[in-house]
Design brief:
The protein has 3 helices and no strands. It is elongated, with a radius of gyration of 25 Å. It has helices spanning 30-61, 68-89, 91-99. It has a domain at 45-102. 5% of the residues are buried. The protein is mostly helical and 102 residues long.
Length: 102
C-alpha cells in the first residue's frame, strides 16, 4: 500500500485521558461486583489468619515432640501468612491508589 497523499498532520494533543474515570453507575449490577469483592476479601483474611494460627501451632508443638523440621516449617508458614494478611488487608488501599488521579 502506498502512503496517503498528502500525509495527514496531527491535530490537537490527542485523546484527553484525564477526563476518563470509573463510573460504577454505568455498570449493570455493580452491587454484585462489590459483594463478590468483599466476599473474596473476607475469605482472604480468614485464610491468612487460619494459616497464621496453623503456623503458630506447628511452631509451638514441633519442639515438644522433637520435630524441629515441623517447627521450622511452622515458623516460615507464620511469616508467609503474615505477609499475605498484610497484602490482602491493604488490597483496597492499593486499588484505590492505582485508580486515583495522579
Amino acid at each position: 500500500m502506498l502512503a496517503p497523499d498528502p500525509t495527514p498532520t496531527p491535530s490537537g494533543g490527542g485523546f484527553d485521558f484525564g477526563r476518563i474515570s470509573p463510573d460504577p453507575a454505568a455498570v449493570p449490577r455493580s452491587d454484585l461486583f462489590y459483594k463478590l469483592a468483599n466476599a473474596a476479601l473476607f475469605l482472604g483474611v480468614i485464610s491468612a489468619v487460619a494459616g497464621l494460627a496453623a503456623g503458630a501451632i506447628a511452631f509451638g508443638i514441633g519442639p515438644i515432640f522433637g520435630a524441629h523440621i515441623i517447627s521450622d516449617r511452622g515458623k516460615s508458614m507464620m511469616w508467609k501468612a503474615g505477609l499475605v494478611a498484610i497484602v490482602v488487608g491493604s488490597a483496597t488501599s492499593i486499588i484505590a491508589f492505582l485508580l486515583s488521579e495522579i
